[in-house]
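In full, the data:

***
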Amino acid sequence: MASGAFLSGLDAAVVNVGLDTIGRDLDTTLDVAQWVANGYLVAFAASLPACGWLARRLGPARLWLGALAVFTVASGLCAVAGTIGWLVAARVLQGLAAGLLIPAGQTILGRAVGPQRLGRVMATLGVAVTLAPAVGPVVGGVVLHYLSWPWLFLINLPVGLLALLAGRRLPYGTGERPGPLDHAGLLLLSLALPLVVYGAAFTEPLPLALGILCGGAFVAHALRRERPVLDLRLFRTPAYAAACATAACAGAAMFGSAVLFPLYFQLGRGAEPLDAGLLLVSASIGTALVLPVSGRLVDRFGGGAVALAGGLALVGTTVPFAVLDVNADGVLVQALLFLRGAAVALAVMPATTGAFKAVTVEQLPDATTQVNIVTRVGGALGGAAFTLIVASGLASGAGAALRESFGWLTGASVLGVAAAFWLAVAERASQDRPVTVDMSS
Protein backbone atom coordinates (compact mmCIF):
# COMPACT_ATOMS: atom_id res chain seq x y z
CA MET A 1 0.00 0.00 0.00
CA ALA A 2 2.83 2.36 0.85
CA SER A 3 4.47 1.86 -2.55
CA GLY A 4 1.31 2.95 -4.36
CA ALA A 5 0.86 6.01 -2.17
CA PHE A 6 4.54 6.90 -2.59
CA LEU A 7 4.40 6.62 -6.38
CA SER A 8 1.28 8.77 -6.57
CA GLY A 9 2.85 11.59 -4.56
CA LEU A 10 6.33 11.28 -6.06
CA ASP A 11 5.09 11.49 -9.64
CA ALA A 12 3.24 14.75 -9.03
CA ALA A 13 6.27 16.36 -7.34
CA VAL A 14 8.96 15.10 -9.74
CA VAL A 15 7.26 16.23 -12.94
CA ASN A 16 6.75 19.83 -11.79
CA VAL A 17 10.53 20.31 -11.81
CA GLY A 18 10.82 19.27 -15.46
CA LEU A 19 8.01 21.26 -17.11
CA ASP A 20 10.34 23.83 -18.67
CA THR A 21 12.64 21.12 -20.07
CA ILE A 22 9.69 19.11 -21.39
CA GLY A 23 8.29 22.22 -23.11
CA ARG A 24 11.58 22.91 -24.89
CA ASP A 25 12.15 19.31 -25.99
CA LEU A 26 8.61 18.89 -27.31
CA ASP A 27 8.65 22.32 -28.97
CA THR A 28 5.77 23.88 -27.04
CA THR A 29 5.20 26.80 -24.70
CA LEU A 30 5.34 26.60 -20.91
CA ASP A 31 1.59 27.37 -20.73
CA VAL A 32 0.87 24.24 -22.78
CA ALA A 33 3.48 22.15 -20.99
CA GLN A 34 1.82 23.12 -17.69
CA TRP A 35 -1.03 20.77 -18.65
CA VAL A 36 1.32 17.87 -18.02
CA ALA A 37 0.81 18.78 -14.35
CA ASN A 38 -2.72 20.19 -14.62
CA GLY A 39 -4.08 17.14 -16.44
CA TYR A 40 -2.80 14.86 -13.69
CA LEU A 41 -4.35 17.04 -10.97
CA VAL A 42 -7.77 17.29 -12.63
CA ALA A 43 -7.90 13.57 -13.54
CA PHE A 44 -6.94 12.61 -9.98
CA ALA A 45 -9.98 14.49 -8.68
CA ALA A 46 -12.27 13.12 -11.41
CA SER A 47 -11.64 9.47 -10.54
CA LEU A 48 -12.26 9.76 -6.78
CA PRO A 49 -16.10 9.59 -6.89
CA ALA A 50 -16.14 6.14 -8.52
CA CYS A 51 -13.69 4.61 -6.04
CA GLY A 52 -16.22 3.51 -3.41
CA TRP A 53 -18.52 1.74 -5.91
CA LEU A 54 -15.58 0.12 -7.71
CA ALA A 55 -14.08 -1.10 -4.42
CA ARG A 56 -17.37 -2.84 -3.62
CA ARG A 57 -17.83 -4.21 -7.12
CA LEU A 58 -14.29 -5.53 -7.68
CA GLY A 59 -12.96 -5.76 -4.15
CA PRO A 60 -10.49 -3.14 -2.91
CA ALA A 61 -7.41 -5.34 -3.51
CA ARG A 62 -8.29 -5.96 -7.17
CA LEU A 63 -9.09 -2.27 -7.62
CA TRP A 64 -5.74 -1.27 -6.09
CA LEU A 65 -3.78 -3.71 -8.26
CA GLY A 66 -5.65 -2.65 -11.39
CA ALA A 67 -5.04 1.04 -10.65
CA LEU A 68 -1.35 0.38 -9.96
CA ALA A 69 -1.02 -1.58 -13.23
CA VAL A 70 -2.62 1.26 -15.21
CA PHE A 71 -0.43 3.81 -13.42
CA THR A 72 2.73 1.83 -14.24
CA VAL A 73 1.79 1.35 -17.90
CA ALA A 74 0.89 5.04 -18.17
CA SER A 75 4.33 5.92 -16.78
CA GLY A 76 5.90 4.00 -19.65
CA LEU A 77 3.62 5.76 -22.15
CA CYS A 78 4.69 9.13 -20.73
CA ALA A 79 8.36 8.22 -21.13
CA VAL A 80 8.01 7.40 -24.84
CA ALA A 81 5.71 10.35 -25.67
CA GLY A 82 6.82 12.12 -28.84
CA THR A 83 4.32 14.99 -28.73
CA ILE A 84 2.86 17.16 -25.99
CA GLY A 85 -0.65 15.87 -26.75
CA TRP A 86 0.45 12.27 -26.23
CA LEU A 87 2.20 13.18 -22.99
CA VAL A 88 -0.80 15.06 -21.58
CA ALA A 89 -3.13 12.16 -22.48
CA ALA A 90 -0.83 9.68 -20.74
CA ARG A 91 -0.65 11.96 -17.69
CA VAL A 92 -4.45 12.08 -17.54
CA LEU A 93 -4.48 8.27 -17.55
CA GLN A 94 -1.91 8.33 -14.74
CA GLY A 95 -4.03 10.76 -12.73
CA LEU A 96 -7.17 8.64 -13.12
CA ALA A 97 -5.29 5.63 -11.73
CA ALA A 98 -3.60 7.61 -8.95
CA GLY A 99 -6.96 8.89 -7.71
CA LEU A 100 -7.98 5.28 -7.00
CA LEU A 101 -4.73 4.12 -5.36
CA ILE A 102 -4.86 5.88 -1.99
CA PRO A 103 -8.58 5.35 -1.09
CA ALA A 104 -8.45 1.71 -2.22
CA GLY A 105 -5.28 1.14 -0.20
CA GLN A 106 -6.81 2.72 2.89
CA THR A 107 -9.88 0.49 2.52
CA ILE A 108 -7.70 -2.63 2.34
CA LEU A 109 -5.75 -1.63 5.44
CA GLY A 110 -8.87 -0.64 7.39
CA ARG A 111 -10.48 -4.00 6.71
CA ALA A 112 -7.32 -5.98 7.40
CA VAL A 113 -6.16 -4.51 10.71
CA GLY A 114 -9.32 -3.38 12.50
CA PRO A 115 -9.88 -0.15 14.48
CA GLN A 116 -7.55 -1.04 17.37
CA ARG A 117 -4.38 -0.91 15.18
CA LEU A 118 -5.61 1.46 12.50
CA GLY A 119 -3.72 4.49 13.81
CA ARG A 120 -0.24 2.98 13.66
CA VAL A 121 -0.87 1.36 10.27
CA MET A 122 -2.20 4.58 8.72
CA ALA A 123 0.80 6.37 10.21
CA THR A 124 3.13 3.98 8.38
CA LEU A 125 1.29 4.70 5.16
CA GLY A 126 1.53 8.41 5.99
CA VAL A 127 5.33 8.25 6.07
CA ALA A 128 5.33 7.29 2.39
CA VAL A 129 2.78 9.98 1.54
CA THR A 130 4.86 12.61 3.37
CA LEU A 131 8.27 11.71 1.99
CA ALA A 132 7.16 11.55 -1.65
CA PRO A 133 6.55 15.30 -2.18
CA ALA A 134 9.64 16.10 -0.08
CA VAL A 135 12.09 14.06 -2.12
CA GLY A 136 10.30 14.65 -5.44
CA PRO A 137 11.90 18.01 -6.33
CA VAL A 138 15.33 16.71 -5.31
CA VAL A 139 14.94 13.51 -7.35
CA GLY A 140 13.63 15.51 -10.30
CA GLY A 141 16.56 17.91 -10.16
CA VAL A 142 19.10 15.08 -10.06
CA VAL A 143 17.40 13.20 -12.92
CA LEU A 144 17.32 16.28 -15.14
CA HIS A 145 20.94 17.08 -14.32
CA TYR A 146 22.33 13.66 -15.29
CA LEU A 147 19.64 12.15 -17.56
CA SER A 148 16.74 13.29 -19.76
CA TRP A 149 13.12 14.10 -18.89
CA PRO A 150 11.66 10.65 -19.89
CA TRP A 151 13.50 9.27 -16.84
CA LEU A 152 11.14 11.32 -14.67
CA PHE A 153 8.57 8.66 -15.60
CA LEU A 154 10.81 5.63 -16.10
CA ILE A 155 11.79 5.70 -12.41
CA ASN A 156 8.20 4.64 -11.61
CA LEU A 157 8.50 1.36 -13.50
CA PRO A 158 10.69 -0.73 -11.14
CA VAL A 159 8.72 0.33 -8.05
CA GLY A 160 5.40 -0.31 -9.78
CA LEU A 161 6.48 -3.75 -11.03
CA LEU A 162 7.79 -4.82 -7.62
CA ALA A 163 4.55 -3.68 -5.98
CA LEU A 164 2.51 -5.65 -8.52
CA LEU A 165 4.56 -8.78 -7.80
CA ALA A 166 3.99 -8.27 -4.07
CA GLY A 167 0.26 -7.94 -4.71
CA ARG A 168 -0.26 -11.68 -4.36
CA ARG A 169 0.06 -11.16 -0.59
CA LEU A 170 -2.96 -8.85 -0.44
CA PRO A 171 -6.20 -10.03 1.23
CA TYR A 172 -8.32 -10.26 -1.90
CA GLY A 173 -11.68 -11.20 -0.42
CA THR A 174 -14.64 -11.17 -2.77
CA GLY A 175 -16.52 -8.46 -4.55
CA GLU A 176 -19.97 -7.44 -3.37
CA ARG A 177 -23.22 -6.58 -5.09
CA PRO A 178 -23.23 -2.80 -4.68
CA GLY A 179 -26.40 -2.36 -6.67
CA PRO A 180 -26.70 -0.45 -9.94
CA LEU A 181 -24.26 2.37 -10.46
CA ASP A 182 -25.71 5.80 -9.72
CA HIS A 183 -24.86 7.28 -13.11
CA ALA A 184 -26.41 10.69 -12.44
CA GLY A 185 -24.63 11.07 -9.10
CA LEU A 186 -21.32 9.90 -10.57
CA LEU A 187 -21.63 12.39 -13.43
CA LEU A 188 -22.45 15.31 -11.12
CA LEU A 189 -19.64 14.55 -8.68
CA SER A 190 -17.12 13.72 -11.41
CA LEU A 191 -17.83 17.17 -12.87
CA ALA A 192 -17.91 18.98 -9.52
CA LEU A 193 -14.55 17.86 -8.15
CA PRO A 194 -12.31 18.59 -11.17
CA LEU A 195 -14.04 21.94 -11.70
CA VAL A 196 -13.60 22.96 -8.06
CA VAL A 197 -9.99 21.74 -7.92
CA TYR A 198 -9.09 23.40 -11.24
CA GLY A 199 -10.99 26.61 -10.52
CA ALA A 200 -9.43 26.95 -7.06
CA ALA A 201 -5.91 25.93 -8.04
CA PHE A 202 -5.76 28.31 -11.03
CA THR A 203 -8.09 31.05 -9.68
CA GLU A 204 -10.68 30.61 -12.40
CA PRO A 205 -14.03 31.80 -10.96
CA LEU A 206 -16.31 30.30 -13.64
CA PRO A 207 -15.12 26.66 -13.28
CA LEU A 208 -15.15 27.08 -9.50
CA ALA A 209 -18.75 28.35 -9.52
CA LEU A 210 -19.86 25.57 -11.89
CA GLY A 211 -18.14 23.00 -9.68
CA ILE A 212 -19.88 24.29 -6.56
CA LEU A 213 -23.20 24.22 -8.43
CA CYS A 214 -22.66 20.61 -9.54
CA GLY A 215 -21.61 19.69 -6.00
CA GLY A 216 -24.80 21.16 -4.56
CA ALA A 217 -26.86 19.28 -7.14
CA PHE A 218 -25.07 16.05 -6.18
CA VAL A 219 -25.84 16.54 -2.48
CA ALA A 220 -29.55 17.10 -3.25
CA HIS A 221 -29.55 14.03 -5.51
CA ALA A 222 -27.66 11.76 -3.09
CA LEU A 223 -29.92 12.52 -0.14
CA ARG A 224 -32.98 11.47 -2.15
CA ARG A 225 -31.52 8.27 -3.59
CA GLU A 226 -31.48 4.96 -1.73
CA ARG A 227 -28.05 3.89 -3.06
CA PRO A 228 -26.09 6.93 -4.23
CA VAL A 229 -22.57 6.63 -5.62
CA LEU A 230 -21.38 8.01 -2.26
CA ASP A 231 -23.44 7.62 0.90
CA LEU A 232 -23.63 11.08 2.49
CA ARG A 233 -25.65 9.66 5.38
CA LEU A 234 -22.31 8.84 7.01
CA PHE A 235 -22.18 12.50 8.01
CA ARG A 236 -25.05 11.85 10.42
CA THR A 237 -22.46 10.22 12.71
CA PRO A 238 -21.07 13.16 14.74
CA ALA A 239 -17.55 11.74 15.08
CA TYR A 240 -17.33 11.08 11.34
CA ALA A 241 -18.62 14.55 10.45
CA ALA A 242 -16.18 16.16 12.89
CA ALA A 243 -13.28 14.10 11.53
CA CYS A 244 -14.07 15.16 7.95
CA ALA A 245 -14.26 18.82 9.01
CA THR A 246 -10.87 18.44 10.71
CA ALA A 247 -9.43 16.76 7.61
CA ALA A 248 -10.72 19.57 5.38
CA CYS A 249 -9.12 22.24 7.59
CA ALA A 250 -5.92 20.21 7.80
CA GLY A 251 -5.90 19.86 4.02
CA ALA A 252 -6.23 23.63 3.59
CA ALA A 253 -3.39 24.26 6.04
CA MET A 254 -1.17 21.51 4.62
CA PHE A 255 -1.59 22.37 0.93
CA GLY A 256 -1.43 26.06 1.79
CA SER A 257 1.94 25.42 3.40
CA ALA A 258 3.08 23.56 0.28
CA VAL A 259 2.44 26.80 -1.64
CA LEU A 260 3.69 29.32 0.90
CA PHE A 261 6.97 27.84 2.08
CA PRO A 262 8.58 27.49 -1.38
CA LEU A 263 7.56 31.12 -2.01
CA TYR A 264 9.01 32.06 1.38
CA PHE A 265 12.43 30.75 0.37
CA GLN A 266 12.32 31.87 -3.26
CA LEU A 267 10.69 35.31 -3.02
CA GLY A 268 11.68 36.15 0.52
CA ARG A 269 15.15 34.67 0.84
CA GLY A 270 16.24 34.51 -2.82
CA ALA A 271 16.75 30.72 -3.05
CA GLU A 272 16.74 28.80 -6.32
CA PRO A 273 13.87 26.28 -6.80
CA LEU A 274 16.05 23.22 -6.12
CA ASP A 275 17.63 24.89 -3.08
CA ALA A 276 14.14 25.76 -1.79
CA GLY A 277 13.16 22.10 -2.07
CA LEU A 278 16.23 21.03 -0.11
CA LEU A 279 15.55 23.64 2.58
CA LEU A 280 12.06 22.18 3.10
CA VAL A 281 13.28 18.64 3.72
CA SER A 282 13.59 19.33 7.47
CA ALA A 283 9.80 19.68 7.74
CA SER A 284 9.25 16.34 6.02
CA ILE A 285 11.82 14.68 8.30
CA GLY A 286 9.93 15.99 11.32
CA THR A 287 6.67 14.58 9.95
CA ALA A 288 8.17 11.19 9.08
CA LEU A 289 9.81 10.79 12.50
CA VAL A 290 6.70 11.70 14.50
CA LEU A 291 4.08 9.86 12.39
CA PRO A 292 4.72 6.42 13.95
CA VAL A 293 4.37 7.95 17.43
CA SER A 294 1.25 9.78 16.28
CA GLY A 295 -0.33 6.52 15.11
CA ARG A 296 0.21 4.80 18.44
CA LEU A 297 -1.20 7.81 20.28
CA VAL A 298 -4.32 7.68 18.09
CA ASP A 299 -4.83 4.00 18.89
CA ARG A 300 -4.52 4.80 22.61
CA PHE A 301 -6.25 8.17 23.03
CA GLY A 302 -8.36 8.61 19.88
CA GLY A 303 -7.94 10.78 16.81
CA GLY A 304 -9.61 13.87 18.27
CA ALA A 305 -7.29 14.28 21.26
CA VAL A 306 -4.15 13.82 19.15
CA ALA A 307 -5.42 16.09 16.36
CA LEU A 308 -6.24 18.76 18.94
CA ALA A 309 -2.71 18.66 20.36
CA GLY A 310 -1.28 18.68 16.83
CA GLY A 311 -3.48 21.60 15.81
CA LEU A 312 -2.32 23.67 18.75
CA ALA A 313 1.30 22.83 17.91
CA LEU A 314 0.63 23.78 14.28
CA VAL A 315 -0.65 27.19 15.35
CA GLY A 316 2.35 27.68 17.62
CA THR A 317 4.84 26.88 14.86
CA THR A 318 3.08 29.00 12.21
CA VAL A 319 2.78 32.22 14.22
CA PRO A 320 6.57 32.92 14.17
CA PHE A 321 6.55 33.06 10.35
CA ALA A 322 3.79 35.70 10.55
CA VAL A 323 5.82 37.97 12.86
CA LEU A 324 9.51 37.27 12.16
CA ASP A 325 11.50 39.12 9.52
CA VAL A 326 11.77 37.17 6.28
CA ASN A 327 15.57 37.10 6.69
CA ALA A 328 15.44 35.53 10.15
CA ASP A 329 18.29 33.29 11.26
CA GLY A 330 18.48 30.18 9.06
CA VAL A 331 19.02 27.80 11.96
CA LEU A 332 15.90 29.16 13.69
CA VAL A 333 13.90 28.77 10.48
CA GLN A 334 15.02 25.15 10.06
CA ALA A 335 14.19 24.36 13.69
CA LEU A 336 10.71 25.85 13.27
CA LEU A 337 10.19 23.87 10.07
CA PHE A 338 11.20 20.63 11.79
CA LEU A 339 8.82 21.30 14.69
CA ARG A 340 6.07 22.30 12.26
CA GLY A 341 6.56 19.03 10.38
CA ALA A 342 6.15 17.17 13.66
CA ALA A 343 2.98 19.15 14.34
CA VAL A 344 1.60 18.18 10.91
CA ALA A 345 2.08 14.52 11.81
CA LEU A 346 -0.04 15.04 14.92
CA ALA A 347 -2.71 17.14 13.19
CA VAL A 348 -3.45 15.56 9.81
CA MET A 349 -3.27 11.75 10.01
CA PRO A 350 -5.29 11.47 13.29
CA ALA A 351 -8.22 13.25 11.63
CA THR A 352 -8.44 10.79 8.74
CA THR A 353 -7.95 7.82 11.05
CA GLY A 354 -10.68 9.17 13.33
CA ALA A 355 -13.06 9.20 10.37
CA PHE A 356 -12.26 5.59 9.49
CA LYS A 357 -12.70 4.46 13.10
CA ALA A 358 -16.13 6.09 13.25
CA VAL A 359 -17.65 3.87 10.54
CA THR A 360 -18.22 0.16 10.06
CA VAL A 361 -16.10 -2.09 7.85
CA GLU A 362 -18.89 -2.11 5.25
CA GLN A 363 -18.87 1.70 5.12
CA LEU A 364 -15.09 2.01 4.64
CA PRO A 365 -15.14 2.30 0.81
CA ASP A 366 -17.40 5.36 1.03
CA ALA A 367 -15.53 6.79 4.03
CA THR A 368 -12.05 6.57 2.48
CA THR A 369 -13.32 8.18 -0.72
CA GLN A 370 -15.12 11.00 1.08
CA VAL A 371 -12.18 11.80 3.36
CA ASN A 372 -9.86 12.04 0.36
CA ILE A 373 -12.37 14.28 -1.41
CA VAL A 374 -12.76 16.75 1.48
CA THR A 375 -8.98 16.82 2.00
CA ARG A 376 -8.33 17.52 -1.70
CA VAL A 377 -11.03 20.18 -1.96
CA GLY A 378 -9.87 21.85 1.25
CA GLY A 379 -6.31 21.75 -0.04
CA ALA A 380 -7.22 23.24 -3.42
CA LEU A 381 -9.20 26.07 -1.83
CA GLY A 382 -6.50 26.73 0.76
CA GLY A 383 -3.68 26.73 -1.77
CA ALA A 384 -5.59 29.10 -4.06
CA ALA A 385 -6.45 31.48 -1.24
CA PHE A 386 -2.88 31.76 0.04
CA THR A 387 -1.49 32.22 -3.48
CA LEU A 388 -3.90 35.10 -4.06
CA ILE A 389 -2.95 36.71 -0.74
CA VAL A 390 0.74 36.62 -1.63
CA ALA A 391 0.15 37.89 -5.16
CA SER A 392 -2.07 40.78 -4.03
CA GLY A 393 0.42 41.88 -1.36
CA LEU A 394 3.62 41.84 -3.41
CA ALA A 395 3.27 45.54 -4.21
CA SER A 396 4.14 46.30 -0.59
CA GLY A 397 7.15 43.96 -0.64
CA ALA A 398 7.65 40.20 -0.53
CA GLY A 399 8.32 40.16 3.21
CA ALA A 400 5.08 41.93 4.11
CA ALA A 401 3.06 39.80 1.68
CA LEU A 402 4.48 36.58 3.10
CA ARG A 403 3.89 37.65 6.72
CA GLU A 404 0.28 38.48 5.89
CA SER A 405 -0.15 35.10 4.21
CA PHE A 406 1.27 33.27 7.21
CA GLY A 407 -1.18 35.21 9.36
CA TRP A 408 -4.03 33.80 7.29
CA LEU A 409 -2.44 30.34 7.46
CA THR A 410 -2.46 30.68 11.25
CA GLY A 411 -6.18 31.46 11.05
CA ALA A 412 -6.79 28.31 8.98
CA SER A 413 -4.88 26.33 11.60
CA VAL A 414 -7.07 27.81 14.35
CA LEU A 415 -10.14 26.55 12.45
CA GLY A 416 -8.49 23.13 12.44
CA VAL A 417 -8.10 23.33 16.23
CA ALA A 418 -11.82 24.08 16.60
CA ALA A 419 -12.73 21.14 14.35
CA ALA A 420 -10.35 18.84 16.26
CA PHE A 421 -11.98 19.88 19.54
CA TRP A 422 -15.37 18.96 18.05
CA LEU A 423 -13.89 15.58 17.03
CA ALA A 424 -12.51 14.95 20.52
CA VAL A 425 -15.88 15.75 22.11
CA ALA A 426 -17.76 13.58 19.59
CA GLU A 427 -15.42 10.62 20.15
CA ARG A 428 -15.78 10.96 23.90
CA ALA A 429 -19.58 11.08 23.59
CA SER A 430 -19.61 7.94 21.43
CA GLN A 431 -17.50 6.09 24.01
CA ASP A 432 -19.72 7.22 26.91
CA ARG A 433 -22.97 6.31 25.12
CA PRO A 434 -24.56 3.32 26.88
CA VAL A 435 -24.96 0.11 24.91
CA THR A 436 -28.51 -1.24 24.72
CA VAL A 437 -29.10 -4.96 24.36
CA ASP A 438 -32.18 -6.46 22.74
CA MET A 439 -33.34 -9.21 25.13
CA SER A 440 -36.50 -10.08 23.22
CA SER A 441 -34.92 -13.17 21.65
Remarks:
- Confidence is low (pLDDT under 50) at residues 434-441.
- The first helix runs from residue 2 to 17.
